[in-house]
Amino acid sequence: MDAAIDLSDESKALDLSHIRFQLIPGGVKIPNSPLPLFDWMLREQEHLQSLVRRYQSPDEYPFFPDALQTPILAPIHYPKILHPNDVNVNEQLKASYIEHILPAACRQLGRAERGEAQENFGSTATCDVSCLQALSRRIHFGKFVAESKFRKETEFYTDMIQRGDREGIGAAITDEKVEKKVLERLRLKAKTYGTDPSIGADDGAKVNVDAVVAMYKDWVIPLTKEVEVEYLMQRLTNTEWEK
């Protein structure tokens, strides 16, 4: 991120819409579009990628469904693994990414924005789009995890689903030991790949490792659980177990 938040103005420093404007290039005027640069690039990417079947894959979910087009390639016939559902947490993910993940992870350069011609708006937005799409895929893969658990313990989950026990389902799908190992591996990878080897571990950190771990702990894992719970709550629809 090449823009700095104006901390001299308290109202701006604490205003989420202003923070969002600074973190995601939105001051760039897009011809014939009211969208900020980040949203415009994300929508255009989804428009293009839909033409080559990206969103026919059962583990891909668009942020802009209205942008999708009929693929120019012949369809791939994926096996019907998941139960029909409408679970999509991309809006929550994008809001969390802009308002919480980026402010924690991005370095503040201590200077004012230099203007469109001198900032890396294009490359920044490109990286943000790739990152957000990867997070979305990872989070929505929770549906496959939920389906696997349902098939292994059908009666157990059916009972909780019929009773509307979201809290019980959430507890049942949680494995704190696995989550701890995931966060430990993530910390190691962030420290390893986020360090400039020519400088050393102490001074060569290019990324806030704690912020990366917090991203998973506070946002990715909870959103994945939400996907699993809400998917299971729809799992009995039009089945023999529906009441």
Characterization of the model:
The structure is a single chain. The chain is an all-alpha fold and 243 residues long. Helix content is 55%, strand content 0%. α2 crosses α4 (90-105), α3 crosses α5 (121-140) and α6 packs across α7.
| Share of helix, binned | 40-55%
Structural class: mainly alpha
Computed over alpha carbons, the radius of gyration is: 21 Å
Q: How many H/I helices?
A: 10
Strand content: under 5%
**Alpha-carbon distance between the two ends:** 51 Å
Low-pLDDT runs of 5+ residues are: 1-8, 15-23
Give the CA-based shape. globular
Largest sheet: none
Could you give the count of β-strands? 0
The chain-level mean pLDDT equals 85
Order of helical and strand elements: HHHHHHHHHH
